[in-house]
Amino acid sequence: xxxxxxxxxxxxxxxxxxxxxxxxxxxxxxxxxxxxxxxxxxxxxxxxxxxxxxxxxxxxxxxxxxxxxxxxxxxxxxxxxxxxxxxxxxxxxxxxxxxxxxxxxxxxxxxxxxxxxxxxxxxxxxxxxxxxxxxxxxxxxxxxxxxxxxxxxxxxxxxxxxxxxxxxxxxxxxxxxxxxxxxxxxxxxxxxxxxxxxxxxxxxxxxxxxxxxxxxxxxxxxxxxxxxxxxxxxxxxxxxxxxxxxxxxxxxxxxxxxxxxxxxxxxxxxxxxxxxxxxxxxxxxxxxxxxxxxxxxxxxxxxxxxxxxxxxxxxxxxxxxxxxxxxxxxxxxxxxxxxxxxxxxxxxxxxxxxxxxxxxxxxxxxxxxxxxxxxxxxxxxxxxxxxxxxxxxxxxxxxxxxxxxxxxxxxxxxxxxxxxxxxxxxxxxxxxxxxxxxxxxxxxxxxxxxxxxxxxxxxxxxxxxxxxxxxxxxxxxxxxxxxxxxxxxxxxxxxxxxxxxxxxxxxxxxxxxxxxxxxxxxxxxxxxxxxxxxxxxxxxxxxxxxxxxxxxxxxxxxxxxxxxxxxxxxxxxxxxxxxxxxxxxxxxxxxxxxxxxxxxxxxxxxxxxxxxxxxxxxxxxxxxxxxxxxxxxxxxxxx
Length: 639
Description:
6-stranded mixed sheet; 27 helices; 8 strands; elongated
Protein backbone atom coordinates (compact mmCIF):
# COMPACT_ATOMS: atom_id res chain seq x y z
CA UNK A 1 0.00 0.00 0.00
CA UNK A 2 2.74 2.47 1.03
CA UNK A 3 4.92 1.42 -1.90
CA UNK A 4 2.03 2.15 -4.26
CA UNK A 5 1.58 5.63 -2.75
CA UNK A 6 5.35 6.23 -2.94
CA UNK A 7 5.36 5.19 -6.60
CA UNK A 8 2.43 7.50 -7.35
CA UNK A 9 4.22 10.45 -5.69
CA UNK A 10 7.37 9.81 -7.75
CA UNK A 11 5.33 9.72 -10.97
CA UNK A 12 3.60 12.99 -9.97
CA UNK A 13 6.98 14.70 -9.28
CA UNK A 14 8.37 13.43 -12.57
CA UNK A 15 5.40 14.88 -14.46
CA UNK A 16 5.88 18.25 -12.69
CA UNK A 17 9.60 18.29 -13.64
CA UNK A 18 8.68 17.45 -17.26
CA UNK A 19 6.18 20.33 -17.35
CA UNK A 20 8.77 22.77 -15.91
CA UNK A 21 11.37 21.54 -18.39
CA UNK A 22 8.92 21.93 -21.28
CA UNK A 23 7.98 25.44 -20.08
CA UNK A 24 11.65 26.36 -19.73
CA UNK A 25 12.49 25.04 -23.18
CA UNK A 26 9.66 27.09 -24.65
CA UNK A 27 11.01 30.23 -23.00
CA UNK A 28 14.63 29.43 -23.86
CA UNK A 29 15.08 27.32 -27.00
CA UNK A 30 17.86 24.72 -26.97
CA UNK A 31 19.91 26.68 -29.54
CA UNK A 32 19.45 30.01 -27.71
CA UNK A 33 22.58 31.52 -26.14
CA UNK A 34 23.00 31.30 -22.37
CA UNK A 35 21.67 34.43 -20.65
CA UNK A 36 23.65 35.68 -17.66
CA UNK A 37 21.93 37.32 -14.74
CA UNK A 38 22.97 40.76 -13.51
CA UNK A 39 25.09 40.32 -10.41
CA UNK A 40 24.14 42.14 -7.20
CA UNK A 41 27.22 43.27 -5.25
CA UNK A 42 27.51 42.10 -1.63
CA UNK A 43 26.35 44.54 1.02
CA UNK A 44 29.14 46.82 2.27
CA UNK A 45 29.67 48.24 5.72
CA UNK A 46 28.29 51.81 5.79
CA UNK A 47 31.42 53.21 7.44
CA UNK A 48 33.73 51.46 4.95
CA UNK A 49 31.63 52.70 2.04
CA UNK A 50 31.73 56.28 3.35
CA UNK A 51 35.48 56.00 3.97
CA UNK A 52 36.08 54.74 0.41
CA UNK A 53 33.99 57.60 -1.05
CA UNK A 54 35.89 60.26 0.92
CA UNK A 55 39.23 58.69 -0.01
CA UNK A 56 38.36 58.63 -3.70
CA UNK A 57 37.06 62.21 -3.61
CA UNK A 58 39.85 63.90 -1.64
CA UNK A 59 42.74 61.41 -1.83
CA UNK A 60 42.40 59.93 -5.30
CA UNK A 61 46.20 59.95 -5.74
CA UNK A 62 46.67 58.03 -2.44
CA UNK A 63 49.35 60.41 -1.07
CA UNK A 64 50.01 58.28 2.04
CA UNK A 65 50.84 55.14 0.08
CA UNK A 66 54.66 55.69 0.13
CA UNK A 67 54.50 55.98 3.94
CA UNK A 68 53.04 52.49 4.33
CA UNK A 69 55.21 49.98 6.25
CA UNK A 70 57.97 52.57 6.81
CA UNK A 71 59.73 53.10 10.17
CA UNK A 72 58.99 56.27 12.14
CA UNK A 73 62.26 58.01 11.27
CA UNK A 74 61.77 57.30 7.58
CA UNK A 75 58.20 58.63 7.73
CA UNK A 76 59.50 61.87 9.28
CA UNK A 77 62.08 62.30 6.53
CA UNK A 78 59.49 61.54 3.84
CA UNK A 79 57.06 64.00 5.45
CA UNK A 80 59.66 66.75 5.34
CA UNK A 81 60.42 65.90 1.70
CA UNK A 82 56.71 66.11 0.91
CA UNK A 83 56.49 69.54 2.49
CA UNK A 84 59.84 70.70 1.09
CA UNK A 85 60.53 68.85 -2.22
CA UNK A 86 63.95 70.53 -2.43
CA UNK A 87 65.13 68.05 0.25
CA UNK A 88 64.37 65.19 -2.15
CA UNK A 89 65.68 66.43 -5.49
CA UNK A 90 68.48 68.40 -3.81
CA UNK A 91 70.33 65.14 -3.01
CA UNK A 92 70.92 64.47 -6.70
CA UNK A 93 71.77 68.07 -7.56
CA UNK A 94 75.06 68.54 -9.43
CA UNK A 95 77.16 71.13 -11.23
CA UNK A 96 75.59 70.40 -14.63
CA UNK A 97 72.13 71.22 -13.28
CA UNK A 98 73.49 74.28 -11.49
CA UNK A 99 74.95 75.61 -14.74
CA UNK A 100 71.60 75.25 -16.52
CA UNK A 101 69.76 76.89 -13.62
CA UNK A 102 72.18 79.83 -13.46
CA UNK A 103 71.78 80.54 -17.18
CA UNK A 104 67.98 80.25 -16.93
CA UNK A 105 67.85 82.33 -13.74
CA UNK A 106 69.91 85.15 -15.24
CA UNK A 107 67.72 85.09 -18.36
CA UNK A 108 64.39 85.34 -16.54
CA UNK A 109 65.84 87.96 -14.17
CA UNK A 110 66.65 90.21 -17.12
CA UNK A 111 63.05 89.78 -18.24
CA UNK A 112 61.35 90.04 -14.85
CA UNK A 113 62.95 93.29 -13.61
CA UNK A 114 61.40 95.60 -16.24
CA UNK A 115 58.18 93.56 -16.23
CA UNK A 116 57.84 93.83 -12.45
CA UNK A 117 58.14 97.60 -12.55
CA UNK A 118 55.45 97.74 -15.25
CA UNK A 119 53.14 95.23 -13.55
CA UNK A 120 53.29 97.19 -10.30
CA UNK A 121 51.90 100.15 -12.25
CA UNK A 122 49.05 97.90 -13.46
CA UNK A 123 48.26 97.19 -9.81
CA UNK A 124 48.48 100.97 -9.08
CA UNK A 125 51.43 100.38 -6.73
CA UNK A 126 54.88 101.95 -6.61
CA UNK A 127 57.48 100.20 -8.83
CA UNK A 128 59.48 98.68 -5.97
CA UNK A 129 56.52 96.52 -4.92
CA UNK A 130 56.76 94.63 -8.19
CA UNK A 131 60.44 93.92 -7.49
CA UNK A 132 59.67 92.93 -3.90
CA UNK A 133 57.22 90.34 -5.28
CA UNK A 134 60.00 88.76 -7.35
CA UNK A 135 62.37 88.50 -4.40
CA UNK A 136 60.63 86.75 -1.47
CA UNK A 137 57.90 84.59 -3.15
CA UNK A 138 60.31 82.83 -5.59
CA UNK A 139 62.55 81.87 -2.65
CA UNK A 140 59.64 80.32 -0.74
CA UNK A 141 58.41 78.50 -3.85
CA UNK A 142 61.86 77.10 -4.64
CA UNK A 143 61.79 75.20 -1.33
CA UNK A 144 58.12 74.14 -1.36
CA UNK A 145 57.05 73.93 -5.02
CA UNK A 146 57.10 70.75 -7.10
CA UNK A 147 57.42 72.30 -10.58
CA UNK A 148 60.91 72.47 -12.10
CA UNK A 149 60.02 75.02 -14.76
CA UNK A 150 57.58 77.56 -13.36
CA UNK A 151 58.94 81.08 -12.82
CA UNK A 152 57.34 82.98 -9.94
CA UNK A 153 56.51 86.67 -9.73
CA UNK A 154 53.83 89.27 -10.51
CA UNK A 155 51.81 88.66 -13.68
CA UNK A 156 49.87 91.02 -15.90
CA UNK A 157 46.37 89.56 -15.51
CA UNK A 158 46.45 89.29 -11.71
CA UNK A 159 48.04 92.76 -11.43
CA UNK A 160 45.26 94.28 -13.53
CA UNK A 161 42.57 92.33 -11.66
CA UNK A 162 43.97 93.34 -8.28
CA UNK A 163 44.36 96.97 -9.35
CA UNK A 164 40.78 97.12 -10.64
CA UNK A 165 39.22 95.49 -7.57
CA UNK A 166 41.25 97.58 -5.15
CA UNK A 167 40.48 100.80 -7.01
CA UNK A 168 36.75 100.05 -6.64
CA UNK A 169 37.22 100.21 -2.86
CA UNK A 170 39.95 102.85 -2.36
CA UNK A 171 41.24 105.55 -4.70
CA UNK A 172 45.00 105.00 -4.83
CA UNK A 173 45.60 108.69 -5.63
CA UNK A 174 43.46 110.00 -2.78
CA UNK A 175 44.65 107.54 -0.09
CA UNK A 176 47.79 105.67 -1.18
CA UNK A 177 48.44 104.21 2.29
CA UNK A 178 44.97 102.65 2.69
CA UNK A 179 45.21 101.33 -0.89
CA UNK A 180 48.60 99.72 -0.22
CA UNK A 181 47.41 98.19 3.06
CA UNK A 182 44.33 96.76 1.34
CA UNK A 183 46.64 95.26 -1.32
CA UNK A 184 48.66 93.47 1.38
CA UNK A 185 45.45 92.31 3.07
CA UNK A 186 44.12 90.92 -0.22
CA UNK A 187 47.46 89.17 -0.81
CA UNK A 188 47.31 87.62 2.67
CA UNK A 189 43.84 86.19 2.07
CA UNK A 190 44.78 85.09 -1.45
CA UNK A 191 47.54 82.99 0.12
CA UNK A 192 45.22 81.66 2.83
CA UNK A 193 42.70 80.64 0.14
CA UNK A 194 45.33 78.86 -1.94
CA UNK A 195 46.93 77.05 1.00
CA UNK A 196 43.54 76.00 2.38
CA UNK A 197 42.45 74.52 -0.93
CA UNK A 198 45.70 72.58 -1.12
CA UNK A 199 45.73 71.42 2.51
CA UNK A 200 42.14 70.12 2.35
CA UNK A 201 42.80 68.76 -1.15
CA UNK A 202 40.06 70.80 -2.78
CA UNK A 203 42.07 71.63 -5.88
CA UNK A 204 39.34 70.25 -8.12
CA UNK A 205 37.37 73.46 -7.43
CA UNK A 206 39.59 75.45 -9.80
CA UNK A 207 38.57 73.08 -12.60
CA UNK A 208 35.12 74.67 -12.55
CA UNK A 209 36.63 77.48 -14.61
CA UNK A 210 36.69 75.78 -18.00
CA UNK A 211 39.61 75.96 -20.42
CA UNK A 212 37.46 77.85 -22.93
CA UNK A 213 36.49 80.47 -20.33
CA UNK A 214 40.15 80.87 -19.30
CA UNK A 215 41.21 81.34 -22.94
CA UNK A 216 38.56 84.05 -23.44
CA UNK A 217 39.31 85.74 -20.12
CA UNK A 218 43.07 85.80 -20.75
CA UNK A 219 42.59 87.12 -24.28
CA UNK A 220 40.27 89.88 -23.12
CA UNK A 221 42.61 90.78 -20.27
CA UNK A 222 45.53 90.94 -22.71
CA UNK A 223 43.63 93.39 -24.93
CA UNK A 224 42.66 95.48 -21.90
CA UNK A 225 46.23 95.53 -20.55
CA UNK A 226 47.66 96.47 -23.96
CA UNK A 227 45.15 99.34 -24.26
CA UNK A 228 46.03 100.51 -20.75
CA UNK A 229 49.65 100.84 -21.86
CA UNK A 230 48.67 103.52 -24.39
CA UNK A 231 48.78 105.91 -21.44
CA UNK A 232 52.50 105.35 -20.99
CA UNK A 233 53.22 104.84 -24.67
CA UNK A 234 51.74 108.19 -25.70
CA UNK A 235 52.40 110.07 -22.45
CA UNK A 236 48.73 110.80 -21.78
CA UNK A 237 48.24 112.74 -18.53
CA UNK A 238 44.48 112.46 -17.86
CA UNK A 239 43.72 108.82 -18.51
CA UNK A 240 40.47 107.05 -17.59
CA UNK A 241 40.35 104.87 -14.47
CA UNK A 242 37.98 102.47 -16.26
CA UNK A 243 39.28 99.42 -18.11
CA UNK A 244 36.66 98.93 -20.85
CA UNK A 245 37.72 99.52 -24.45
CA UNK A 246 35.24 102.36 -25.07
CA UNK A 247 36.50 104.47 -22.14
CA UNK A 248 40.15 103.77 -22.96
CA UNK A 249 39.82 104.72 -26.65
CA UNK A 250 37.86 107.83 -25.66
CA UNK A 251 40.82 108.91 -23.49
CA UNK A 252 43.31 108.14 -26.27
CA UNK A 253 41.45 110.05 -28.99
CA UNK A 254 40.62 112.85 -26.56
CA UNK A 255 44.30 113.30 -25.78
CA UNK A 256 45.16 113.19 -29.48
CA UNK A 257 42.53 115.86 -30.24
CA UNK A 258 43.72 118.24 -27.54
CA UNK A 259 47.41 117.60 -28.13
CA UNK A 260 50.04 116.43 -25.68
CA UNK A 261 52.89 118.20 -23.98
CA UNK A 262 55.54 116.13 -25.74
CA UNK A 263 58.16 117.72 -27.95
CA UNK A 264 58.01 116.10 -31.39
CA UNK A 265 61.81 116.10 -31.48
CA UNK A 266 61.81 113.48 -28.70
CA UNK A 267 58.79 111.46 -29.85
CA UNK A 268 61.06 108.56 -30.91
CA UNK A 269 62.02 107.97 -27.27
CA UNK A 270 58.64 106.71 -25.98
CA UNK A 271 58.08 104.82 -29.22
CA UNK A 272 61.17 102.58 -28.83
CA UNK A 273 60.39 98.98 -29.67
CA UNK A 274 60.03 96.48 -26.75
CA UNK A 275 63.18 94.65 -27.84
CA UNK A 276 65.38 97.67 -26.97
CA UNK A 277 66.76 97.14 -23.50
CA UNK A 278 65.64 99.16 -20.52
CA UNK A 279 69.25 100.06 -19.85
CA UNK A 280 69.72 101.59 -23.30
CA UNK A 281 66.48 103.58 -23.16
CA UNK A 282 67.28 104.80 -19.66
CA UNK A 283 70.73 105.92 -20.81
CA UNK A 284 69.28 107.86 -23.75
CA UNK A 285 66.71 109.61 -21.56
CA UNK A 286 69.44 110.50 -19.06
CA UNK A 287 71.85 112.00 -21.60
CA UNK A 288 69.14 113.84 -23.55
CA UNK A 289 67.07 114.82 -20.47
CA UNK A 290 63.97 113.87 -22.44
CA UNK A 291 61.99 113.85 -19.18
CA UNK A 292 62.08 117.66 -19.27
CA UNK A 293 60.47 117.62 -22.69
CA UNK A 294 57.37 115.60 -21.78
CA UNK A 295 58.66 112.01 -21.72
CA UNK A 296 57.25 110.33 -18.63
CA UNK A 297 59.76 108.36 -16.58
CA UNK A 298 59.65 106.01 -13.61
CA UNK A 299 61.30 108.60 -11.34
CA UNK A 300 61.88 107.27 -7.82
CA UNK A 301 62.19 103.60 -6.80
CA UNK A 302 62.84 102.80 -3.14
CA UNK A 303 66.27 101.29 -2.54
CA UNK A 304 66.70 98.23 -0.30
CA UNK A 305 65.04 94.86 0.26
CA UNK A 306 61.47 94.24 1.36
CA UNK A 307 60.41 96.00 4.55
CA UNK A 308 58.03 94.22 6.93
CA UNK A 309 54.33 94.85 6.29
CA UNK A 310 52.80 92.68 9.02
CA UNK A 311 51.37 95.72 10.82
CA UNK A 312 49.90 97.08 7.59
CA UNK A 313 47.56 94.12 7.01
CA UNK A 314 43.94 94.81 8.04
CA UNK A 315 42.95 92.15 10.59
CA UNK A 316 39.91 94.17 11.71
CA UNK A 317 37.78 97.08 10.58
CA UNK A 318 35.79 97.79 7.42
CA UNK A 319 38.61 96.77 5.05
CA UNK A 320 38.99 93.24 6.47
CA UNK A 321 35.99 91.81 4.59
CA UNK A 322 36.86 93.77 1.45
CA UNK A 323 40.41 92.43 1.52
CA UNK A 324 39.10 88.90 2.04
CA UNK A 325 36.73 89.14 -0.93
CA UNK A 326 39.36 90.59 -3.27
CA UNK A 327 41.95 88.07 -2.04
CA UNK A 328 39.75 85.05 -2.71
CA UNK A 329 39.06 86.18 -6.30
CA UNK A 330 42.69 87.12 -7.03
CA UNK A 331 43.96 83.95 -5.34
CA UNK A 332 41.72 81.67 -7.42
CA UNK A 333 42.73 83.33 -10.69
CA UNK A 334 46.41 83.21 -9.74
CA UNK A 335 46.02 79.56 -8.78
CA UNK A 336 44.30 78.66 -12.04
CA UNK A 337 47.09 80.27 -14.06
CA UNK A 338 49.94 78.73 -12.02
CA UNK A 339 48.55 75.18 -12.00
CA UNK A 340 47.80 75.34 -15.76
CA UNK A 341 51.36 76.52 -16.48
CA UNK A 342 52.89 73.92 -14.16
CA UNK A 343 50.91 71.07 -15.72
CA UNK A 344 51.83 72.22 -19.23
CA UNK A 345 55.58 72.12 -18.63
CA UNK A 346 55.36 68.98 -16.48
CA UNK A 347 53.75 67.12 -19.38
CA UNK A 348 56.42 68.44 -21.76
CA UNK A 349 59.19 67.09 -19.51
CA UNK A 350 57.22 63.97 -18.51
CA UNK A 351 57.07 64.33 -14.73
CA UNK A 352 54.18 64.40 -12.27
CA UNK A 353 52.97 67.62 -10.70
CA UNK A 354 51.07 67.42 -7.40
CA UNK A 355 48.37 70.08 -7.77
CA UNK A 356 47.51 70.16 -4.07
CA UNK A 357 51.17 70.49 -3.08
CA UNK A 358 51.48 73.36 -5.56
CA UNK A 359 48.56 75.14 -3.93
CA UNK A 360 50.12 74.88 -0.49
CA UNK A 361 53.42 76.22 -1.86
CA UNK A 362 51.76 79.12 -3.71
CA UNK A 363 49.58 79.93 -0.70
CA UNK A 364 52.50 79.90 1.72
CA UNK A 365 54.61 82.18 -0.48
CA UNK A 366 51.76 84.69 -0.78
CA UNK A 367 51.07 84.68 2.96
CA UNK A 368 54.77 85.29 3.65
CA UNK A 369 54.82 87.79 0.76
CA UNK A 370 51.94 89.79 2.24
CA UNK A 371 54.05 90.23 5.38
CA UNK A 372 57.08 91.40 3.39
CA UNK A 373 55.51 94.14 1.23
CA UNK A 374 54.64 91.88 -1.73
CA UNK A 375 51.40 91.67 -3.65
CA UNK A 376 49.92 88.53 -5.22
CA UNK A 377 52.55 86.50 -7.08
CA UNK A 378 52.02 83.40 -9.19
CA UNK A 379 53.47 81.52 -12.14
CA UNK A 380 54.18 83.69 -15.16
CA UNK A 381 53.61 82.04 -18.53
CA UNK A 382 56.05 84.26 -20.46
CA UNK A 383 58.79 83.90 -17.85
CA UNK A 384 58.17 80.17 -17.43
CA UNK A 385 58.44 79.67 -21.19
CA UNK A 386 61.75 81.57 -21.21
CA UNK A 387 62.87 79.58 -18.17
CA UNK A 388 62.09 76.34 -19.97
CA UNK A 389 63.78 77.35 -23.22
CA UNK A 390 66.84 78.67 -21.37
CA UNK A 391 67.46 75.17 -20.05
CA UNK A 392 66.34 75.30 -16.42
CA UNK A 393 66.78 72.03 -14.54
CA UNK A 394 65.16 72.72 -11.15
CA UNK A 395 63.53 75.46 -9.07
CA UNK A 396 67.03 76.79 -8.32
CA UNK A 397 66.54 79.08 -11.35
CA UNK A 398 63.98 80.93 -9.18
CA UNK A 399 66.62 81.32 -6.46
CA UNK A 400 69.08 82.74 -9.01
CA UNK A 401 66.42 85.16 -10.28
CA UNK A 402 65.58 86.17 -6.71
CA UNK A 403 69.27 86.84 -5.99
CA UNK A 404 69.57 89.11 -9.04
CA UNK A 405 66.45 90.99 -7.93
CA UNK A 406 68.03 91.31 -4.46
CA UNK A 407 71.17 92.88 -6.00
CA UNK A 408 68.95 95.17 -8.07
CA UNK A 409 67.02 96.35 -5.00
CA UNK A 410 70.20 96.89 -3.03
CA UNK A 411 72.35 98.67 -5.61
CA UNK A 412 70.70 99.36 -8.98
CA UNK A 413 67.20 100.78 -8.34
CA UNK A 414 68.36 104.44 -8.41
CA UNK A 415 69.49 103.87 -12.01
CA UNK A 416 65.87 103.18 -13.06
CA UNK A 417 64.90 106.74 -12.25
CA UNK A 418 65.15 107.79 -15.93
CA UNK A 419 63.52 104.68 -17.40
CA UNK A 420 60.74 105.91 -19.72
CA UNK A 421 57.25 104.58 -19.03
CA UNK A 422 56.91 104.03 -22.75
CA UNK A 423 59.52 101.27 -22.77
CA UNK A 424 57.80 99.58 -19.83
CA UNK A 425 54.49 99.86 -21.68
CA UNK A 426 56.06 98.31 -24.79
CA UNK A 427 57.52 95.46 -22.71
CA UNK A 428 54.13 94.76 -21.09
CA UNK A 429 52.37 94.83 -24.48
CA UNK A 430 54.87 92.40 -25.98
CA UNK A 431 54.43 90.13 -22.94
CA UNK A 432 50.61 90.10 -22.86
CA UNK A 433 50.03 89.70 -26.60
CA UNK A 434 51.13 86.10 -26.19
CA UNK A 435 48.08 85.57 -23.96
CA UNK A 436 45.80 86.02 -26.99
CA UNK A 437 45.59 82.44 -28.24
CA UNK A 438 43.90 82.54 -31.64
CA UNK A 439 44.67 78.89 -32.37
CA UNK A 440 43.03 77.78 -29.12
CA UNK A 441 39.92 79.86 -29.89
CA UNK A 442 39.66 78.35 -33.40
CA UNK A 443 40.08 74.84 -31.99
CA UNK A 444 37.40 75.52 -29.36
CA UNK A 445 35.03 76.64 -32.15
CA UNK A 446 35.68 73.43 -34.09
CA UNK A 447 35.24 71.15 -31.08
CA UNK A 448 32.45 72.65 -28.99
CA UNK A 449 30.26 75.62 -29.94
CA UNK A 450 29.02 76.07 -26.36
CA UNK A 451 32.63 76.29 -25.17
CA UNK A 452 33.20 78.94 -27.83
CA UNK A 453 30.28 80.96 -26.44
CA UNK A 454 31.91 80.74 -22.99
CA UNK A 455 35.22 81.85 -24.49
CA UNK A 456 33.73 84.83 -26.34
CA UNK A 457 31.50 85.76 -23.40
CA UNK A 458 34.51 86.05 -21.10
CA UNK A 459 36.51 87.88 -23.80
CA UNK A 460 33.90 90.53 -24.59
CA UNK A 461 32.98 90.88 -20.90
CA UNK A 462 36.54 91.92 -20.10
CA UNK A 463 37.05 94.08 -23.20
CA UNK A 464 33.74 95.98 -23.18
CA UNK A 465 32.97 96.10 -19.46
CA UNK A 466 35.59 95.28 -16.84
CA UNK A 467 37.87 92.52 -15.60
CA UNK A 468 35.51 91.49 -12.80
CA UNK A 469 32.51 91.38 -15.16
CA UNK A 470 34.50 89.26 -17.60
CA UNK A 471 35.50 86.94 -14.74
CA UNK A 472 31.89 86.73 -13.57
CA UNK A 473 30.75 85.85 -17.09
CA UNK A 474 33.50 83.21 -17.39
CA UNK A 475 32.51 81.54 -14.11
CA UNK A 476 28.76 81.84 -14.84
CA UNK A 477 29.02 80.26 -18.29
CA UNK A 478 31.25 77.48 -16.93
CA UNK A 479 28.65 76.67 -14.26
CA UNK A 480 25.84 76.99 -16.81
CA UNK A 481 27.54 74.38 -18.97
CA UNK A 482 27.88 72.01 -16.03
CA UNK A 483 24.22 72.51 -15.08
CA UNK A 484 23.11 72.00 -18.67
CA UNK A 485 25.06 68.74 -18.97
CA UNK A 486 23.73 67.51 -15.62
CA UNK A 487 20.10 68.51 -16.14
CA UNK A 488 19.87 67.67 -19.85
CA UNK A 489 21.91 64.51 -20.41
CA UNK A 490 22.10 62.86 -23.81
CA UNK A 491 19.94 59.91 -24.76
CA UNK A 492 20.09 57.81 -27.91
CA UNK A 493 18.12 55.22 -29.88
CA UNK A 494 20.13 52.04 -30.45
CA UNK A 495 20.03 49.66 -33.38
CA UNK A 496 21.75 46.34 -34.19
CA UNK A 497 24.85 46.37 -36.37
CA UNK A 498 24.33 43.87 -39.23
CA UNK A 499 25.80 40.41 -38.63
CA UNK A 500 26.54 41.10 -34.95
CA UNK A 501 24.83 41.24 -31.59
CA UNK A 502 26.22 44.74 -30.97
CA UNK A 503 23.78 47.64 -30.49
CA UNK A 504 24.90 51.20 -31.20
CA UNK A 505 23.51 54.73 -31.70
CA UNK A 506 21.62 54.79 -35.01
CA UNK A 507 22.72 58.39 -35.64
CA UNK A 508 26.37 57.40 -35.40
CA UNK A 509 25.81 54.15 -37.32
CA UNK A 510 23.09 54.70 -39.93
CA UNK A 511 23.43 51.05 -41.01
CA UNK A 512 22.24 49.83 -37.60
CA UNK A 513 18.73 48.37 -37.78
CA UNK A 514 15.93 48.66 -35.25
CA UNK A 515 14.39 45.51 -33.79
CA UNK A 516 10.74 45.01 -34.68
CA UNK A 517 8.47 45.61 -31.70
CA UNK A 518 11.38 46.75 -29.52
CA UNK A 519 12.62 50.26 -28.76
CA UNK A 520 16.13 50.47 -27.27
CA UNK A 521 17.08 53.73 -25.52
CA UNK A 522 20.47 54.47 -23.96
CA UNK A 523 20.82 57.01 -21.13
CA UNK A 524 24.28 58.61 -21.14
CA UNK A 525 24.37 59.94 -17.58
CA UNK A 526 23.81 59.20 -13.94
CA UNK A 527 20.13 59.66 -13.01
CA UNK A 528 19.73 62.23 -10.24
CA UNK A 529 17.03 64.56 -8.93
CA UNK A 530 18.29 67.24 -11.33
CA UNK A 531 17.64 65.22 -14.49
CA UNK A 532 15.36 62.31 -13.56
CA UNK A 533 12.14 63.95 -14.73
CA UNK A 534 13.75 65.04 -18.01
CA UNK A 535 15.07 61.51 -18.68
CA UNK A 536 11.64 60.00 -18.04
CA UNK A 537 9.91 62.49 -20.33
CA UNK A 538 12.59 62.15 -23.02
CA UNK A 539 12.22 58.36 -23.10
CA UNK A 540 8.44 58.72 -23.41
CA UNK A 541 8.93 61.22 -26.26
CA UNK A 542 11.21 58.74 -28.04
CA UNK A 543 8.44 56.14 -27.65
CA UNK A 544 5.71 58.45 -28.96
CA UNK A 545 7.84 59.49 -31.96
CA UNK A 546 8.59 55.85 -32.76
CA UNK A 547 4.93 54.81 -32.45
CA UNK A 548 3.84 57.62 -34.79
CA UNK A 549 6.34 56.44 -37.41
CA UNK A 550 5.23 52.82 -37.03
CA UNK A 551 1.56 53.78 -37.27
CA UNK A 552 2.11 55.79 -40.44
CA UNK A 553 3.94 52.86 -42.07
CA UNK A 554 1.39 50.24 -40.80
CA UNK A 555 3.98 48.31 -38.78
CA UNK A 556 3.43 46.47 -35.47
CA UNK A 557 3.44 48.65 -32.35
CA UNK A 558 6.19 48.69 -29.74
CA UNK A 559 5.84 45.93 -27.14
CA UNK A 560 9.14 46.28 -25.27
CA UNK A 561 11.18 49.32 -24.24
CA UNK A 562 14.77 48.44 -23.31
CA UNK A 563 16.74 51.02 -21.34
CA UNK A 564 20.50 50.50 -21.81
CA UNK A 565 22.02 51.56 -18.47
CA UNK A 566 25.75 50.94 -18.99
CA UNK A 567 26.59 54.68 -18.83
CA UNK A 568 24.37 55.20 -15.76
CA UNK A 569 26.98 55.26 -12.99
CA UNK A 570 24.58 56.15 -10.17
CA UNK A 571 20.95 56.77 -9.33
CA UNK A 572 19.23 58.47 -6.40
CA UNK A 573 15.73 58.25 -4.91
CA UNK A 574 14.38 60.75 -7.45
CA UNK A 575 15.81 58.60 -10.21
CA UNK A 576 14.14 55.49 -8.78
CA UNK A 577 10.85 57.39 -8.52
CA UNK A 578 11.19 58.48 -12.17
CA UNK A 579 11.71 54.83 -13.24
CA UNK A 580 8.60 53.84 -11.26
CA UNK A 581 6.55 56.52 -13.04
CA UNK A 582 8.02 55.42 -16.38
CA UNK A 583 7.03 51.83 -15.60
CA UNK A 584 3.46 52.90 -14.81
CA UNK A 585 3.18 54.98 -17.99
CA UNK A 586 4.47 52.11 -20.11
CA UNK A 587 2.14 49.63 -18.40
CA UNK A 588 -0.85 51.77 -19.45
CA UNK A 589 0.41 51.56 -23.05
CA UNK A 590 0.88 47.76 -22.83
CA UNK A 591 4.64 48.21 -23.18
CA UNK A 592 7.02 46.24 -20.96
CA UNK A 593 10.00 48.00 -19.38
CA UNK A 594 13.31 46.12 -19.68
CA UNK A 595 16.63 47.20 -18.13
CA UNK A 596 20.00 46.23 -19.59
CA UNK A 597 23.34 46.17 -17.77
CA UNK A 598 22.80 48.35 -14.70
CA UNK A 599 26.09 48.85 -12.82
CA UNK A 600 26.80 47.62 -9.30
CA UNK A 601 25.71 50.83 -7.56
CA UNK A 602 22.54 51.06 -9.65
CA UNK A 603 21.46 47.41 -9.33
CA UNK A 604 22.07 47.56 -5.57
CA UNK A 605 19.73 50.55 -5.26
CA UNK A 606 17.15 48.96 -7.56
CA UNK A 607 16.98 45.98 -5.20
CA UNK A 608 17.04 48.13 -2.06
CA UNK A 609 14.07 50.14 -3.34
CA UNK A 610 12.27 46.93 -4.46
CA UNK A 611 11.98 48.35 -7.97
CA UNK A 612 13.66 45.21 -9.30
CA UNK A 613 10.81 43.20 -7.76
CA UNK A 614 8.22 45.66 -9.15
CA UNK A 615 9.24 45.18 -12.79
CA UNK A 616 10.37 41.58 -12.22
CA UNK A 617 13.95 40.39 -11.92
CA UNK A 618 13.48 38.51 -15.18
CA UNK A 619 13.22 41.95 -16.85
CA UNK A 620 16.82 42.92 -15.96
CA UNK A 621 19.51 41.62 -18.32
CA UNK A 622 23.28 41.74 -18.54
CA UNK A 623 23.40 42.98 -22.13
CA UNK A 624 21.09 44.52 -24.71
CA UNK A 625 21.55 41.40 -26.85
CA UNK A 626 20.28 39.20 -23.97
CA UNK A 627 17.30 41.51 -23.48
CA UNK A 628 16.44 41.44 -27.20
CA UNK A 629 16.80 37.66 -27.35
CA UNK A 630 14.32 37.34 -24.49
CA UNK A 631 11.90 39.85 -26.02
CA UNK A 632 12.28 38.73 -29.63
CA UNK A 633 13.38 35.05 -29.82
CA UNK A 634 12.52 34.96 -33.54
CA UNK A 635 15.32 37.44 -34.20
CA UNK A 636 17.80 35.27 -32.26
CA UNK A 637 16.84 32.20 -34.26
CA UNK A 638 17.38 34.12 -37.52
CA UNK A 639 20.84 35.26 -36.35
